[in-house]
Amino acid sequence: MDIHSPEFRPVATATNRPFPSMSTDPFSKPDPAGADAVIPVSALNRAIGSMLERSFPLVWVSGEVSNFTKAASGHWYFSIKDAQAQMRCVMFRGRAQYAEFTPREGDRIEVRGLVTMYEPRGELQLGVEAVRRTGQGRLYEAFLRLKAKLEAEGLFAAERKRALPQHPRAIGIVTSLQAAALRDVLTTLSRRAPHVPVIVYPAPVQGAGVAAKLAAMVDEASARREVDVLIVCRGGGSIEDLWAFNEEVLARAIAESAMPVVSGVGHETDFTIADFTADVRAPTPTAAAELVSPQRVLLLRDLDHRHASLARGFGRMMERRAQQIDWLARRLVSPTERLERQRVHLRQLTARLASAGARPVHDARARFALVHMRWQRWRPDLAAEREHLMRLAQRLGDSQGRRHERAAARVSELSARLQVLSPQRTLERGYAALIDAQTGRAVRSPNALKPKRPLTVHLAEGAADVLLADVQPRLSDEF
């Protein structure tokens, strides 16, 4: 609201006291003629604050977050801005603890607050009671787009990060000559590693076209190859102050650098594209100097330790060499004594060889004697065995003769008995045998004789075929 607009109503008019609720300076004398009263600055600021609080109700204001700080007390201090103006804001802990999120640099938010006056400094500010997110700011959106693009190209990949040299021969710094960060880095390097030379590649760190100038210095340091590691740094600030380190040209220059690059931009909570592209990100410029510089005191201490270790190792080696020399000296003898020892050793070997050659022969002879004794024990007596065989052969012959005689007698007996019972002998006594020529059977009964039937008659001296003409059976007890 413009104070010159018709709606503006001042707290006091020219016809009454300017600030009736405030007491005047006790040392000033009242002017009976109605002259202007003299008031302290605090009273004026308090009056302005009261007027603002009564004139402006709670209002929602939108803008982009900048210079956000969360104090140890829990209060939030930040600014919201647009293209033409900005307003300082404060959100006390009692309200901030209920916020759904914590704003960040570049966030576009809406705050509900009351216009107030911070009396100790006489600054106009907005007392925020509520905050809500309306989207990220233009710069932060550009930051996220570039971050996603470079990450997709692999510029942030861990495998392309290079290790920092443990003992750099020279250290390069890309920053402004007027930057406080340069003084902090040089102080840290002179304290930790005064023996390491430092080369500064000056370039502005804030303003128009800064990113290209920083990239040019990085390229120049990479081309000259004067240093082993490069620091790109500047002090803290808002997202606008650090925006040069979010440009693509600087990010690509860092990625293509021939030596490792350490990024030390802003404070510990500040992150830039250069931090993601660099080989190592340091939270502050001072921390970047500590990362690249070996501490001289520690190096000297390590050197003393190594010198002492080397001296102890050399001493132990000399002791071992001296002991080895003593042992070799004890082994060193005259050629005559050495030859005599070799002769004795040769005689011993000869005796061992002879003994080793005779032992198998002796053992073989002993085994042969034992086998021969066993063979003699079991050797057969051929004469006795031959005599025994002759006796057995005679006994066998006698037994076979007697058996033959008994068999011959038996055969004669059976032959005589056979002759007695032989049919031929019966036929020789005058008997005859009739055989039916048709059936081949002997005729035993007169009833079996038929007329005209052929018969074969067997006699003692032959056989004859006969044919019966007539049959007259006759039974008789005698034949």
From TrEMBL:
Keywords attached to this entry: Cytoplasm, Exonuclease, Hydrolase, Nuclease
Protein name (database record): Exodeoxyribonuclease 7 large subunit
Domain OB-fold nucleic acid binding: 40-131
PANTHER family the record matches: EXODEOXYRIBONUCLEASE 7 LARGE SUBUNIT (PTHR30008)
Entry EC no(s): 3.1.11.6
Main location (coarse class): cytoplasm
Top-rank taxon, per record: Bacteria
Biased composition (Polar residues): 13-26
UniProt KW Transmembrane keyword: no
Gene it is expressed from: xseA
Pfam family for this entry, one: tRNA_anti_2
Annotated GO MF terms: exodeoxyribonuclease VII activity; nucleic acid binding
Spans annotated as Disordered: 1-31
Domain Exonuclease VII large subunit C-terminal: 155-465
